[in-house]
Amino acid sequence: MGWLWQSLYSAAAMLWETLWALVLGFSLSAFVQVFFRKEQISKYFGRAGLREVALATFLGAVSSSCSYAAAATAKTFFKKGAALVPTLAFMFASTNLVIELGFILWLLLGWTFVFAEAVGAFILIAAMWLLVKLTLPKGLVEAARAHIGDEEESDCHSHGHAMEMKEESFKEKIRRRENWARVADAFFMDAAMLWKEIVIGFLIAGFLMALVPENWWKKLFIAHGTNSIRLIENAVVGPLIAVASFVCSIGNIPLAGLLWSSDISFGGVISFIYADLIIIPLILIYRKYYGTKAALYITTILFVSMVSAGIIVDLLFSALKLIPQVRPPSAIAEASFQWNYTTWLDFAAIILSGWFLVIHFRGQKQMGHHKHH
Questions:
Q1: How many domains does the chain have?
Q2: pLDDT single digits (tens) 89-139
Q3: Does this model's pTM top 0.85?
Q4: Which residues does 39 contact at the CB level (< 8 Å), separation at least 6?
Q5: DSSP state, residue 136
Q6: Cα angle value 249/254/256 (rounded, 5°)
Q7: How does pLDDT run across 201-233, given as a tens digit for each residue?
Q8: Residue partners of 133: CB distance under 8 A and separation at least 6
Q9: What are φ and ψ of residue 153, in 5° steps?
Q10: Of 132, 142, 180, whose CA–CA distance to 35 is shortest?
Q11: Radius of gyration of the chain (CA)
Q12: DSSP string for residues in 207-221
């Protein structure tokens, strides 16, 4: 049973080392959602122009969510008339351009990967936009929209509280006590949506680290040979590993670190990180939302865009000599419980989380009291 305890210990230690960054990311995301007004701009998503795609990307980036919630919200936009490209841009940005993912990526893989992930995200959206423009079958959008039922989205997938605030200056907003209650609500909502993905991601990375020999990983992707073949093959294999792992959102970052330490290419890691939107459960959700034909088309567009972005980022960062030359051991393999600055940061994060949760549940209790009366 030594492998089991080693897996659990590694997963728990890595989660402990990144806890403060997760809480900080969720807190900043909640602050942005509440104190920086986001208009109901989904009504401007009807065309696939630069303005619409840029707005959808911005709204997604400040609407932190798990992959499942992002898919549900994107479906709502699409149902209300949003074009396909802004819908997909929103869905991608809300899981890959969010603050908390950047923090975890920085801790586990370094600033180069954070920079590459952000640059590649815009490359991916551009590639996706071009692919849809060139290949969108006639009548597919209409058929997909007709397939969507009239069911309402669950409240747990809504960030509407952050969009329905009255017009007021930033100084007025920050002084209002109820706005800080909204921050606590947004924090709790994001944490509640993502905690399963995060825990599962660390557990899978821990088990794979303990059970899978390093040589086995190297058989999955070409580690040597011509640069062009390795570049393309690794960028293709990266998303396929993500599909098989069933891990989405922030939860795939620990596994990305394991892949990087096992000699997958730089672009392969980037394409793997992006592939949280094409795991099998989400493909089934797309089929339920939009129908089989549209689900296959969306999945294909996302996959080709992810592979293309991984290849382009690899070529670009290689030309700029930004790709790290040293591959450290997987962060999860090196993780351990120590008494250092991380411990104090985690204690502060736990106190902050506790404060947010007290505010959230106090507000829920008061709401229930008012409803009773």
A1: 1
A2: 988 998 888 777 888 888 888 899 999 999 999 999 999 999 999 999 999
A3: no
A4: 163
A5: P
A6: 85
A7: 677 767 776 676 666 766 777 766 678 888 999
A8: 48, 85
A9: -70, 145
A10: 180
A11: 21
A12: HHHHHS-HHHHHHHS
